[in-house]
Amino acid sequence: MNEKIELIKDGKRLDGRRFDEIRDISMKVGVLKKASGSAYIEWGKNKVLAGVYGPRELHPKFLQNPTRALLRCTYNLAPFSVDDRKKPGPDRRSVEISKVTAEALESVVMVERYPNTVIDVFMEVLQADAGTRCVGLTAASLALADAGIPMKDLVSACAAGKVDGEIVVDLMKEEDNYGECDLPLAVIPRKNEVVLLQMDGKLTREEFDKTYRLALNGAMKVYEMQKETLKARIEHIMGEDNGY
Amino acid sequence: MNEKIELIKDGKRLDGRRFDEIRDISMKVGVLKKASGSAYIEWGKNKVLAGVYGPRELHPKFLQNPTRALLRCTYNLAPFSVDDRKKPGPDRRSVEISKVTAEALESVVMVERYPNTVIDVFMEVLQADAGTRCVGLTAASLALADAGIPMKDLVSACAAGKVDGEIVVDLMKEEDNYGECDLPLAVIPRKNEVVLLQMDGKLTREEFDKTYRLALNGAMKVYEMQKETLKARIEHIMGEDNGY
Amino acid sequence: MNEKIELIKDGKRLDGRRFDEIRDISMKVGVLKKASGSAYIEWGKNKVLAGVYGPRELHPKFLQNPTRALLRCTYNLAPFSVDDRKKPGPDRRSVEISKVTAEALESVVMVERYPNTVIDVFMEVLQADAGTRCVGLTAASLALADAGIPMKDLVSACAAGKVDGEIVVDLMKEEDNYGECDLPLAVIPRKNEVVLLQMDGKLTREEFDKTYRLALNGAMKVYEMQKETLKARIEHIMGEDNGY
Amino acid sequence: MDIESYLKKDYITNLLREDRRIDGRKFDDYRKIEIIGNYIDEKACGSSLANLGDTKVLVGISMDVGEPYPDKPMDGIMITSAELRPLASPRFESGPPDEESIEIARVVDRGIRESGAIETEKLLIGENKVWVVFIDIHILDHCGNLIDAAGIAAISALLNTRMPKYEDGKIIRGEWAGKLPISCIPIPCTVAKIADKILIDPNIDEEYAMDTRLTIATTDTINAMQKGGKGMLTEKEIFDAVDLSFRKGNDIRRLIE
Amino acid sequence: MDIESYLKKDYITNLLREDRRIDGRKFDDYRKIEIIGNYIDEKACGSSLANLGDTKVLVGISMDVGEPYPDKPMDGIMITSAELRPLASPRFESGPPDEESIEIARVVDRGIRESGAIETEKLLIGENKVWVVFIDIHILDHCGNLIDAAGIAAISALLNTRMPKYEDGKIIRGEWAGKLPISCIPIPCTVAKIADKILIDPNIDEEYAMDTRLTIATTDTINAMQKGGKGMLTEKEIFDAVDLSFRKGNDIRRLIE
Amino acid sequence: MDIESYLKKDYITNLLREDRRIDGRKFDDYRKIEIIGNYIDEKACGSSLANLGDTKVLVGISMDVGEPYPDKPMDGIMITSAELRPLASPRFESGPPDEESIEIARVVDRGIRESGAIETEKLLIGENKVWVVFIDIHILDHCGNLIDAAGIAAISALLNTRMPKYEDGKIIRGEWAGKLPISCIPIPCTVAKIADKILIDPNIDEEYAMDTRLTIATTDTINAMQKGGKGMLTEKEIFDAVDLSFRKGNDIRRLIE
Question: Are B96 and B196 in contact (CB under 8 A)?
């Protein structure tokens, strides 16, 4: 906040978006050979790859739970994904994101079907430009679907926040760095229930209301794209089958 | 030893104590809810909390001993317990103190009664002002008693040393930093046997004799206070029982 | 390569050696009491000690292989073995050398005779002066023989390289630092098969041919010394037996 | 989770269906809050012990001199760490911070940082030299709701923090030069969701039974939020929790001032 | 190794005795090589994604300013690291680099370093200040022959690397000042020995079946060699591999340029 | 402890009751002490290999330039480390120092440091620049009484340590400028208590059988003491051990000089 940057000009944002407009998003599933399921999302300048392994046996044995699978998430920033090289290995931020992501996914994955096992979800941020936890969670939920792991619904995520006094959806890097607030949100769209909610900054009670709704709207748009992506994938596979 | 500090003036020490006078000490047991046993000691400016868990099952299994319990001690300095913040985590000094403390307590705890288990003793130094290993060991032995773990006797500890050429008991920080020798001692009071003895500095054969005796006297005073503390605790609990 | 050093002068090397001349080598086996087998080699200014334990039970159990022994190598540089003190603990170079050494020894040790066990080979570089991986591997193979572990043959190693444009055998420190190429090689002498081969620098196809042959010749000389050493050891032990 | 825990969970859930809590509190009651300031009176720059019922969290503040972050060259630095000391719970083990302690530290940190409670712009010493404020959270007895206890102890400790004297490029330990400038008092408030009820300040038994929790740190605005745990929250539950956290935040702020 | 792997190993070996490979390739054929340059277009200084059949390796280049090594005070520094990301294989786990990733990084490093591909003498900034080039190898899908895929991605990434702008003792992120000076294109080529046959670019099934492998990185000279795996090599096999690596190195170099 | 160790312990204890040791030594006899100075003649600044019977400990001294401790700005620094190399005993494993190696390093360090053996006040180079003396204890064969072997090797190594040449702010490796100034020769002496007997220099079998041990490092004064192991010591045993350690310290000092 030392250098002042004008983030809103003539009612438009730095990249020309309206306040309630999310960035361009493209999604793909089934992008990796080895992983049981995988997904790749480009979301603005973010590039995130997710891969899933499991359900598979959990070692060491004392960690096994006879009533359910352990769902384990690992969020990782590649060294070259940010302007200043990130030292490899988990830092405190990654550990926290991995935790809240796992908790969000546990609400939809039917872990009780796979006792004593582990389902591993890996999110690789290859290029980062704000909002990566939402991108990662969205990709992870696609990769789980791609792996054929039974879920009650998808998880869809989007952030909103406050920038130059305005409430806007889906902050990009400059808005995140110089803005006043960021609020990432993830929902189970069909039940409209919240599975991830974090926030830091400054919001009045009324601003919170507005920010929450913008994030929710963003997540719902993401949900539509997720469904499209999975539908296209199924049609693609079915098409291949017909080829035989 | 670069800045000279006069530690003895007119036959008195910096804080007004006589050579054979220990610092003010207050002891409490049963101060924690979760721990099986606990104790808290303020000793001069030192503040040390001890907690005990166990006997409990030991993992991994190959560490188990079918003839006895493992007694494991962890001595820890809080980051804010010293003038210059201490980085969290064990350093070499803490590892050494944890080792000699465990060895001292093994002499009195009836470990052979609890095969295959572990008894964990944690000593948290919340404020440090020289002599913390003696305070920690004294508190640990109270916490073990509070946990109801059978012991042959308590362990009582006190240091003595040499300061400005004089042999004195129970060194405070300045005396430890600028003095010529520190000798911490722990005994099983009833048998008058030594279970911890360390020393660094310079002592002639005759000075050692005198230092040893001052430390032993100190430990014996500590022993009386430990017994008082446990007696008061029992009376308190008995009183509570009568209330029913 | 900033300071130019003349490494070849009048057809001789810095220490007076010919291009195809290896450094002075002395070998001993059975130098440690505790280890199952051991060897000590002085090779130029290098001093390397090797010790072997096993075959012994492998923990944790899931690492055990029911068809063969695990052969585990640890190459370690002592802190004082080099000009600038080396921080204790494995670095990436040590990890790589440990790996290729283990792979080289696996070719000769009859690991299938000892299922579920581990054979540990430790190489301690006490003084380092270029070529330590060859010295370590040569010593390790002697220590394995000293431990009585069945092997198809010994492993013998030597390096060659390019220095001031000339192909020379067994580079010393200055030649390694300021030379153009280093190629360490290890062979099973009786079958003339290669079990370790690394190289870094610049060599044409023709130079590679020449370098390879010089290294091989060096390894063959080392093999003769290894056999001598083991023969002397056996005679020494037999002599001792006769003494009974 | 063992049998005893399952039974207790059942018991707590059933009670809540009758609108009762296991320790008799109302849904919007905190346990007894006790704050002992300057607990580490001789060595720490600031400190406070907070008891939330039987939960005991000690926070100590240390100050040192360091380099500012390149993107904020004129501002002091705050660093928050939490240690779940192993005497605080049979579940804790010695070792580097795990995800639980990292979450506590980061949520407490966000409440303080985002509210601007520490006036970091007043912590510049000279070129490329600023004060570094270490907030060390020491969990001593874990009987539930560690985040609130840690947050209350942290801001209380900051309020009694003295600035060390600094002369000729050196810190003079044991001598002081005024207080650490603090502008406001952020308070984290945690609500738990159990059996579709929203209640405040869960004790450890309630934590085992809870589906999820939501922490909201407030001053006159919201400064930090953190959902934790596996369950889901409805919109209504979230908005109710926000209102609750403003109200309880004010109550606790009065206790501290 | 499980039963399935044993059977596959058998199958591969038997096929090879009839001079056939499991995926129908000739002994000196690479799988399809696809190189996507500038994959991390916004944040990295350089990057390239290399696909070798189904094997996927991403390399990103970061640049920073640091101190030179004392024995080369005028030269820039290169640092190569490799991470076997756990999504790339069921065998990989999170954690610090193991011997497999260390070997990949070091062999790729040697090929680039010893060929002088990066003109480090042009990376001096000022007294005791040089550019540091970080080559980060990110393994994304492990279907065999990681070293070659990593080496190809690394040199491709270096070829598209931009130098960050440097002004008044600071890096200006997002602005650029020319390209990283690269003098040649070292290519690692790995041959596997299975059932006494020498073949190139082993896929993952062939890697399970192989006795040993030999990697040779070439420009117009040999710059690095690394035998890996437990087996033995005859002289003839080594010399054949050298010839093969010069030939295939030229083919791949043409793809990259 | 396995059956064999139990039986050996029994055997040793029974022998001692008849005042006999397992290897025939008298209670106040050391095993054969052999000291080979300058073992690492080319690379280390100083070094010494000490054999105590079959126990083998190598100590190497390295010197570097660093910053002094803030509370002693005019004094050089000494840093003592010990590594129980895994070839020295079937019990040792690779890894960071455990409590056993930390204890050895710290007891040896205290004997040297507290006696003032290294004249650290002569190791000042210039403002905020002093010599750092690294004492690295390398345990090569563990046949009992590592502390004494390490302490003897350490002081012997210091006595033959050369100071590297220092010119224009740089160390010139391989050239020397006089000897490290050493003022006295501290010797640690370890007594073991087994079956209520006090004996000196326990071998490895006696260590398994012993109740406790006491190490005392002496010059003309006592400089360090360390009780180790689980058992107890009476006053008389301690005072006897002190007398013994002065006497044996003198004997060993004569060997070294």
Answer: no
